[in-house]
Amino acid sequence: MSEKMTAARVSDELMKILVCPQTKARLIQDGDWLYSTDARTRRRYPIVDGIPILLVDRSEVVEESEFGRVMREAGVAM
């Protein structure tokens, strides 16, 4: 069975309790990804079939420019 990325919105209630499993930083959604707001790690976690996959070994480290863009668009102070 293949995994399907989806841009389904994670509910506000769930977003209030989800955190980065590595740093416990707040997460924000951008498309098919949940981004940690921790600037030291710059991790993003996939959303597959509408389910956030919050496993560090499934996350990706993004470039500083992408991290900055996502944080600016979300209104997160850096």
- Helix segment count? 2
Number of domains: 1
- Main β sheet profile: 5 strands, antiparallel
State the order of secondary-structure elements, H for helix, E for strand.
HEEEEEH
Contiguous runs where pLDDT drops below 50 for at least 5 residues: none
Share of β-strand residues: 15-25%
Quick one: overall form? globular
CATH topology value? N-terminal domain of TfIIb
Roughly how many Å apart are the termini?
39 Å
Given the helix and strand composition, which structural class is it?
alpha+beta
Question: At CATH's second level, what is the architecture?
Answer: Single Sheet
Number of DSSP strand runs: 5
Summed over residues and divided by their number, the pLDDT gives a mean of 92
What does the radius of gyration come to? 12 Å
Q: Considering DSSP H and I runs of 4 or more, what fraction of the residues is helical?
A: 10-25%
Q: What's the CATH first level?
A: Mainly Beta
Task: Give an account of the 3D structure.
- The protein is an alpha+beta fold and 78 residues long.
- It has one domain (12-74): N-terminal domain of TfIIb, CATH 2.20.25.10.
- 22% of the residues lie in helices and 23% in strands.
- The protein contains 2 helices and 5 strands.
- Strands 1, 2, 3, 4 and 5 form a 5-stranded antiparallel β-sheet that branches.
- A hairpin with a 2-residue loop joins strand 3 (43-48) and strand 4 (51-52).
- The relative contact order is 0.21.
Key phrases:
single chain, 78 residues, alpha+beta, N-terminal domain of TfIIb, five-stranded antiparallel β-sheet, 2 helices, 22% helix, globular
